[in-house]
Amino acid sequence: MANSLVIVESPAKVKTIKKFLGSSYEVDASNGHVRDLPKSTLGIDVEHDYEPKYITIRGKGDILAKLRKEVKKASKIYLATDPDREGEAISWHLMKALKLDEAKDKKVYRISFNEITKNAVKASLKNPREIDMSLVDAQQARRILDRMVGYSISPLLWAKVKRGLSAGRVQSVALRMICDREDEISAFIPEEYWNLEADLQQKGSRKALKAKFYGTHSEKIAIHNKEELDQILAGLEGQTYTVEDVKIGERSKKPPIPFTTSTLQQEASKVLNFSTQKTMRLAQQLYEGVDVKGHGTIGLITYLRTDSTRIAEEADLAARQYIGSTYGEQYVLQSEQSRKNNGKIQDAHEAIRPTDITLTPVLVKDSLQRDLFRLYQLIWKRFAASRMQPAVYETTSVKVGAGEYQFTLSASRLTFDGFMSVYVEEDDKEEKNTLLGKLEKGDVLNFIELSPSQHFTQPPAHYTEASLVKALEEMGIGRPSTYAPTITTILARRYVTKENKNLYVTELGEAVNGIMKQCFTSIVDTSFTANMEFLLDKVADGTVKWKTIVENFYPDLDQAVKTAEKTLESIKIADEVSDVVCDLCGRNMVIKYGPHGKFLACPGFPECKNTKPYLEKIGVPCPKCGKEVVIKKTKKGRRYYGCEDNPECDFMSWQKPSTEKCPKCGSYMVEKGNKLLCSGEQCGYSMNLKSK
After folding, report:
1. End-to-end Cα separation, the chain, in angstroms
2. CA–CA separation, 467 vs 63, rounded Å?
3. Would the pLDDT of 36 be above 60?
4. How many Cα atoms occupy the beta-carbon half-sphere of 667 within 13 Å?
5. CB burial class (10 A; 0-12, 13-18, 19+) of residue 574?
6. Which of the two residues, 119 and 638, has the higher pLDDT score?
7. Strand (E) positions, 502-596?
8. Is 303 a catalytic residue?
9. Which residue has the higher pLDDT, 639 or 231?
10. Which pLDDT value is given to residue 157?
11. Among the options 50, 109, 287, 303, which is catalytic?
12. DSSP 110-171
């Protein structure tokens, strides 16, 4: 009969851990949190030392009743929730909900393990500890701060925009960052520049070498326009292309560092096209345990929420031995790679790695669903590569003279593949140029042709889930466990839409961000939020009291809310009266906000339920058919300009069209910041708006 009870978070772990421990242990799950702040009220006594009021989460009563029965049978209780702040808090809540702190006839222990393997689980039972209240308090502080922001600000958004919206401490900053990037892109003015390449040949070779224009022999020259290009082309006419300098060298490419939560999300997005939410869901399955043929149910990777790149000595040694025996000793990395600690890294547990390096992707492929396999393979290859030698290239850099001008060409050849025999990133590609034999100073190259190409500078890229996660991490905003839910929330609220990986702010998102920037400056300030994360880390290491943070934060928030309530009384975001007449009852329709942005609705609702799409005219005739250009939305909410007569007329433009015509090619012009640009892709003509 079992006399020890192990309580884990997820039911998926129960079977795996039960197999490791045998009949003297009962293993059961809490299914995550069992207590939380109430949904109907703030749940924090701001008048009495900010004491939180926790209640049993709806639906968890039966789970707690079952756990109480198991507790009665056991003499030892092991709280084995996840090895992070959230897991520590769940253990503490279980202690309170099951009254384990009052049970004098029971021995209660906290255990944690970074991987669900037999050795790790059994080792944790030999090294039990007490609940770390500093970690619990860090989680409490985060939860309470988030509740204060959401509970205080969300009702204002409901009143001024639409019901069901929310504000959040981290999500509001993420939305602000996306909006700011959108503004940068809108304000960006492209500038013209030209590249010039010379196609040259070595003697005896049929393959052309691409040499890039550098400038004169003494300085680099940027080609800004066609006039400057023509001047250079005139100077190159009839010139001989002679090798002036050759440098042979070697460069190495370092192996990648093992995955953290952030880098795993970024790489899975780029390589596998997974959303952050999908990556975390699949990684959770790999961590908790999957049925592998010949091994039973086992955890395949270590804990998935981490910002450390540290690897346990045992795992490091096993990886090096595996690489040595499989690839050869020359492939084994001699010294461990490490990432510089930027002061934001929590080194509580390891990087994300396979629990057993010998369980290669080939061995587990038939046991895993396709996407589970693809993610495991990515993690396995990244870890194996991190324990391997750098890749080595032989490089050749050549300077070629042509009259007063100079060109450069470079080539590289992979001489030792190192870690790239296992893991190749998207940018790990060899140079285009391949040299046939060696070039020497004084060699004359056969001239084939010059290839000029016109380009325009590009605006900053829209955020993707991967680049947003990277930016949040670099700024110290949020933590590994918050990235996926933050992005999921702003997408679910339709503040942001995703098209071809890019994140675009919607009208709804712009409205919410406008209110947040106007009324809650500190909440959407990246530095303020990053500093708050720093203070929460100080709570976790026991140097700052959690109530100190809360009592310094709440009064300012409360005052900002009161000021905002007065300010927003004069702001009308919804219910503007339009000039469109309801064709059912004759009233002037009003503008409202829905999941996809603005729409027209009859003010006579609920008697009259007539609605129409909101088409905002911009006073510009359609360049194709002459009818009105209106602001429209894609299915996912991205704004563009199209003809009101769609689908009969298919005109569309991402930039606002102008009534001006391009004096150079006759195409319609579009507004971009304080300039008008030609819509013709090959034209490039621009003019200042003020000079119209």
Report:
1. 89
2. 40
3. yes
4. 16
5. middle
6. 119
7. 502-505, 576-581, 588-594
8. yes
9. 231
10. 87
11. 303
12. E---SS-SHHHHHHHHHS-B---HHHHHHHHHHHHHHHHHHHHHHHHHHHHT-TT----TTH
